[in-house]
Amino acid sequence: MKDLNFLLERNRLWADGIKQSDPQFFSKLSAQQSPEYLWIGCSDSRVPANQIVGLLPGEVFVHRNIANLVVHSDLNCLSVIQFAVEVLKVKHIIVCGHYECGGVRAALENSDHGLIDNWLRHIKDIYRVHQVQMEATSSAQEKQDRLCEINVIEQVANVCHTTVVQNAWKAGQQLTVHGWIYSVGDGILKDLKVSITGADEIADIHRLA
Asked: What positions carry a catalytic annotation?
């Protein structure tokens, strides 16, 4: 179906609804963006950043990719982090994964998925590092859920290892990195209790002098 006019109509209805509740909303939004949060999440269409935390446009700066990865060579992700931290001066970076993640599920398989297998290697590497814990799980579902959680924890660490974040801490900027996971089954977010507020909380090998 090439006709997407129904989406344009839904957009008009959405914009009209916003303007009815706040006539100046879009004029204020166009003047500036000053979010306090950077959200690094999965591209999965079931996990929309603003909606699941009940925030409006302009309140969350967002980067999404398959399986919410933060890879040290991904200039796209690193550029988003730099802009959020150095320009927008966000106070919180939230890495949010989700259960039933297709990327994590595919990484657990030995199938050929094509080009994406190169991206999923990063998740397979996480599995290898945590192999003892992963293979102690009692079921395939438990293994998948646990890898979703461990993946978030590892990506929180990767965010903290960036020069952007460490330089911000060194300059005294208030910045906390959090790890959350979302359940698509009930819409609830879970805090994985891995919040990091400074370089003294990361491993020495990754800490800048």
From this structure: 42, 44, 46, 98, 101
